[in-house]
């Protein structure tokens, strides 16, 4: 038990001043395990990814939990480990389980997450705040794993809805060489079928020259095809994609992982009180909040919201509460967020953003669903083999 | 607009000599840094006043001579003289003031500082900061009971109401409500408090004497997904009959029986309805619709929306001067 649920004698100060509604003091320790494999060198290295993406979001989640918890005599602490490899991440998990930490947020690759989930078994509840792989949501679901980061399919469905709404239905798809690029492109191909898009050209990126010198020469030729409405780029790590806009054969917008595209979170999101979350994050981290930060924050807030409601921090009680229908997360996306019972994915609107502005926030009006419009994004229940609840 | 202003000025001039005095509504436009002034007889905008950055909460002094404005991005509360329509003063407010409430003593202003998780109490007569009270994450709604005993603050991310004793400036009780509580409204007799929870989709009714929740109201609008039904502003008629609840992106205002707490009707207004206020005779209800950038006018007797008035971008707060 990470949370010892120790019955402390309510501290005279807080107990008297703030009159907590619960006499039971709770100490809640949440673990955060971070391992991101080296992405390799990239051509577009102008704005490097922050190395602490995820960790800082987790820290903000803890701060937000404590700001609420102090009125209820609940105290949250974060135990974080930045591992250098998969073994390091596994060792961190063992260490945390050993010391009784049973609520964990991870930013690790899918295979590491799977190993962790098996290792933890029913001893802990894991929140995936890093791996977007669809396989984790449709085949390899684990009852002890929840996903706060959106899957590739959720992201590309958001883009697909928007392209369909704009009637920019004929697209030119460029896919990078990494497994992540291929997973993103596979998800987009599925989205294109769902939303009636036509991929008129589907080309892998194979060039290895430095585009900073030659983009204007190479890309126009590379994107020569019949007519298309938009170019879709699948370049997850940001290798060549930044050089595609304005260098296409036809004067067409570039969308996907570069240009304008779907994100779990981005600094341009400001509606629904998001401006306050962005301000808090900026003050804490000295940089802008990104998707990984948001996913880690949402995981820790899910725990905090549950503990507030339950006045209990046992991992199985929290797990049951998250799927009970009573749980709802206020997470600055304009509507309450809940977890999909069949695969543990956090339902959420997906902002479509360009570096300086918000374009739209799917699910878009008109894409209907019998349960919730949020389930028009990503694999729906009948499309998933998972049935963890 | 100039034309309209002249007509209004004329109407006002006539008004001074007779009983047909035009009522005025003030609307804060969050993304235009202006206030729109609306004549509540003609339902026309008669003036636009430039104010500080990101004006949100607005309220009238108890003698109706001044309007206080939370200029959130200027980290200040501005004081507008209603006779001259000029900013005559600013008050220390703490960072990012969003909503506030004035004690019936016309002196103590309770300000929710959204970014700092603090409620600041300022004496408006000498600008003294009387207290800064730690509250939950993103304090938002502020209300002072008409009898002056309680100041209630809602903290959005903590999903709590903080009940502040106005004698001691200390929190006496914290009550957990639905997710993202936005607004609190007391009945005239100070016995009942209404609190809206935006993401929870609920309104919570509290017995003030015991500070216990006695009722929760849920809303269902045909054809509107449940997660778009997001209660924000609440307005109560003084006869105790009705409550009006602004339901955000569902674009509806709920009409609630204030005795039985039964929802009587849903009225379609503009997009993302935020706040509302009744005019002095309680004949008309004005609502601010953030996304469509307009104000809807509801005829209270017929319970019908009779007009929408274009104002600035992202209209946030609305107050109607009952003496004008």
Automatic annotation (TrEMBL), chain A:
Gene3D superfamilies: 3.40.50.2300. It holds the Pfam family Peripla_BP_6. CDD domains: PBP1_ABC_transporter_LIVBP-like. Keywords: Signal. Residues 1-25 form the signal peptide. The keyword Lipid metabolism does not apply. Residues 52-205 form the Leucine-binding protein domain. Belongs to the leucine-binding protein family. PANTHER family: LEUCINE-SPECIFIC-BINDING PROTEIN, PERIPLASMIC BINDING PROTEIN OF ABC TRANSPORTER FOR NATURAL AMINO ACIDS. This is Branched-chain amino acid ABC transporter substrate-binding protein. It comes from Marinobacter vulgaris.
UniProtKB/TrEMBL annotation, chain B:
SUPFAM superfamilies: Nitrous oxide reductase, N-terminal domain. InterPro entries: Host-pathogen_enzymatic-act, Lactonase_7-beta_prop, N2O_reductase_N, PQQ_b_propeller, WD40/YVTN_repeat-like_dom_sf, YVTN_b-propeller_repeat. Keywords: Signal. Residues 1-22 form the signal peptide. It comes from the Bacteria. Pfam families: Cytochrom_D1 (PF02239), Lactonase (PF10282). NCBIfam families: beta_rpt_yvtn (TIGR02276), PQQ_ABC_repeats (TIGR03866). This is YVTN family beta-propeller repeat protein. It comes from Marinobacter vulgaris.
């Amino acid at each position: 038990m990470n949370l010892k649920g120790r019955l402390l004698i309510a501290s005279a100060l807080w107990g008297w001043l703030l009159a907590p509604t619960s006499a039971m003091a709770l100490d809640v320790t949440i673990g955060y395990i971070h391992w991101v494999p080296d992405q390799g060198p990239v051509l577009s290295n102008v704005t490097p990814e922050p190395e602490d993406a995820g960790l800082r979001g987790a820290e903000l989640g803890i701060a937000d939990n404590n700001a609420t918890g102090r009125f209820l005599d609940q105290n949250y602490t974060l135990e974080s480990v930045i591992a250098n490899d998969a073994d390091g991440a596994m060792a961190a998990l063992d260490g945390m389980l050993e010391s009784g930490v049973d609520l964990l947020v991870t930013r690790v690759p899918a295979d590491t997450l799977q190993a962790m989930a098996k290792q933890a078994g029913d001893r802990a509840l894991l929140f995936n705040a890093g791996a977007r792989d669809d396989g984790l949501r449709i085949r390899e679901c684990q009852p002890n794993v929840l996903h706060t980061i959106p899957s590739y399919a959720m992201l590309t469905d958001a883009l697909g809805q928007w392209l369909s709404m704009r009637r920019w239905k004929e697209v030119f798809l460029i896919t990078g060489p990494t497994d992540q690029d291929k997973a993103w492109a596979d998800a987009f191909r599925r989205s294109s079928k769902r939303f009636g898009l036509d991929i008129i050209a589907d080309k892998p990126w194979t060039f290895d020259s430095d585009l900073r010198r030659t983009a204007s020469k190479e890309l126009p030729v590379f994107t020569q095809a019949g007519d298309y409405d938009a170019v879709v780029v699948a370049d997850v790590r940001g290798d060549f994609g930044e050089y595609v806009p304005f260098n296409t054969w036809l004067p067409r917008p570039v969308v996907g992982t570069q240009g304008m595209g779907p994100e779990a979170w981005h600094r341009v999101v400001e509606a629904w009180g998001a401006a306050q979350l962005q301000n808090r994050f900026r003050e804490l981290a000295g940089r802008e909040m990104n998707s990984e930060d948001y996913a880690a924050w949402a995981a820790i807030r899910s725990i905090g919201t549950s503990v507030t409601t339950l006045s209990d921090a046992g991992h199985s009680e929290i797990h049951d509460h998250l799927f009970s229908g009573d749980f709802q997360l206020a997470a600055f996306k304009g509507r309450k967020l809940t977890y999909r019972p069949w695969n543990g994915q956090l339902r959420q609107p997906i902002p479509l953003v360009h570096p300086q502005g918000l374009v739209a926030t799917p699910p878009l009006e008109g894409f209907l669903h019998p349960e919730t419009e949020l389930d028009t994004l990503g694999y729906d229940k009948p499309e998933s083999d998972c049935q963890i609840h | 607009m100039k034309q309209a202003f002249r007509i209004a000025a004329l109407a006002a001039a006539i008004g001074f000599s007779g009983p047909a005095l035009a009522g005025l509504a003030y609307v804060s436009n969050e993304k235009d840094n202006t206030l729109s002034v609306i004549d509540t007889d003609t339902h026309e905008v008669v003036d636009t006043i430039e104010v500080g950055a990101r004006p949100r909460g607005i309220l009238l002094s108890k003698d109706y001579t001044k309007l206080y404005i939370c200029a959130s991005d200027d980290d200040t509360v501005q004081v507008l003289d209603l006779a001259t329509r000029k900013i005559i003063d600013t008050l220390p407010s703490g960072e990012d003031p969003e909503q506030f409430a004035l004690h019936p003593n016309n002196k103590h202003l309770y300000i929710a500082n959204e970014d700092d998780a603090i409620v600041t109490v300022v004496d408006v007569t000498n600008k003294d900061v009387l207290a800064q009270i730690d509250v939950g994450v993103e304090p938002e709604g502020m209300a002072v009971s008409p009898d002056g005993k309680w100041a209630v603050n809602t903290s959005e991310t903590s999903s709590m109401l903080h009940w502040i004793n106005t004698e001691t400036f200390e929190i006496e009780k914290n009550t957990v409500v639905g997710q993202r509580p936005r607004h609190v409204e007391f009945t005239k007799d100070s016995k009942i408090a209404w609190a809206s929870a935006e993401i929870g989709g609920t309104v919570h009714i509290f017995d003030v004497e015991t500070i216990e929740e006695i009722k929760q109201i849920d809303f269902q609008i045909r054809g509107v997904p449940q997660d778009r039904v997001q209660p924000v502003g609440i307005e109560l008629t003084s006869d105790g009959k009705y409550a009006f609840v602004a339901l955000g992106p569902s674009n509806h205002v709920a009409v609630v029986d204030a005795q039985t707490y039964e929802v009587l009707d849903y009225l379609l207004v503009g997009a993302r309805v935020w706040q509302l206020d009744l005019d002095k005779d309680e004949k008309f209800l004005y609502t601010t619709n953030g996304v469509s950038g307009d104000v809807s006018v509801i005829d209270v007797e017929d319970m019908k929306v009779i007009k929408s008035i274009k104002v600035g971008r992202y209209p946030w707060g609305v107050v109607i001067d009952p003496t004008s």
